[in-house]
Amino acid sequence: MNNKAADVDQSGNQQKLTPTDSTVSGVGMAANDPGCSGHKCRVCGEGPLVRWVHMPAMPLTEELRPPDYGGSPYLADIDVYRCTACGISQTVGERDLSPYYVDYGYTVGQSPFAARFMQRLADTVRDRFGLQQGFKVIEIGSGDGAQLACFQRAGAEVFGIEPSAELCRVSRARGVPVMEALFMPQTAALLPEAFQPADVLLMTYTFDHLPDPSGTLEAARRTLHPGRGLLVLEVHDLSRIAERREYCLFEHEHYTYWTAETLRCALANSGFRLLTTELLPERERRGNSLLIAAAVMDAAHSPESEVVLTEATTIDYDTFQQELDQGIARLDAFVEEETSLGRKVAGYGGGGRGVMTMAAMTSAWRIAYVCDANTGLHGLLAPKSRVPIAPINRLSEEPVDTLIVFSYGYMTEIREAVEKLSNAPQRIVSMLDILK
């Protein structure tokens, strides 16, 4: 769903990021500084912070523009640091993304897999924790209201918080009430009285977009019912990012990057007890999904059994940059080889994964176009790479030999849809298979 929100509280010395600014080389520090002596950890307040990811001149994931757009895209370095005190990976500084989110329109509503996931999540939360008809659900970063509509069908009363005016309009049209706002810890006090307290507070691919994780968790604890309150979080799994070299998930919009263990520690420090990291089986979750449920410490909910945290991989922070660079080189080499053999290449997935994958490549200009089911992206150009986004039927009208799937989490349904087309590509490959 990738619903996004950001805290826009600025201090006088913080650098303001705007979608049309192409002159900024970094946010909050020099791009060539591997340390971060001027900043403390945004979670534990300690440090020092040590850089372990550096990606130069990267765009915003959703700043797609029409071909005749006259401005330059925002480009800045992405630097990710690890706190040596608590181990949490993060960026530094804060950025004003409010202009960016006002007309933000990302949705995965066209995906049958995503629709099944959302309904399964709603039904599972209700059934697993014994929630009764009329239970109260708040979603931060509620997007077009699709997930909350699933909770409505599961018997809940729902309320969303979403910064995009367009997505709020869609949400209200489908009968899901929503507050148009960027979520900040103080936003919790503005919730309708009927939702104070709430039974469930939900953030799917939103928590890592908030610059004040500890403040957000404190606000969540105050918002939830002390006896039965549940916090449901879905974030990108940093262990999997490292294992798969999935560099496209390092974004300007992400402030923090979490493993199951660092998330457990942050929750405990804010008065939450981790109940499960297996709320849904992996086959039913979206790509790179760390999906957890936690309860307020005094709540009646308890883990069904002792939660055992097993990381997908042990992250070697010292060597990851080299592995990241090698993965990008493999993608470039793959595209170069295909085109050198006279094969035409296209992509599938015009969302964040596709945008950021192509932005780091030197050979992206050789990709003819990128297909996407989201009609709102058609006719636009991906930022930096300027690869056009097209409907899926372009594969029939302008056939290619090889299709690289950036949205690998939907690989099965993408393959089924593409193979039904006339002139379907002879080769359909996940970007993950190339990055290895």
UniProtKB/TrEMBL annotation:
Gene3D superfamilies: Methyltransferase, zinc-binding domain, NAD(P)-binding Rossmann-like Domain, Vaccinia Virus protein VP39. Residues 10-25 have a biased composition (Polar residues). Keywords: Methyltransferase, Transferase. Residues 1-26 are annotated as: Disordered. GO terms for biological process: methylation. The keyword Methyltransferase applies. Residues 304-428 form the C-methyltransferase domain. Pfam families: Methyltransf_14 (PF08484), Methyltransf_23 (PF13489). One of its GO terms (molecular function) is methyltransferase activity. InterPro entries: Methyltransf_Zn-bd_dom_put_sf, MeTrfase_14, SAM-dependent_MTases_sf. This is Methyltransferase domain-containing protein. The lineage of its organism: Bacteria, Bacillati, Bacillota, Bacilli, Bacillales.
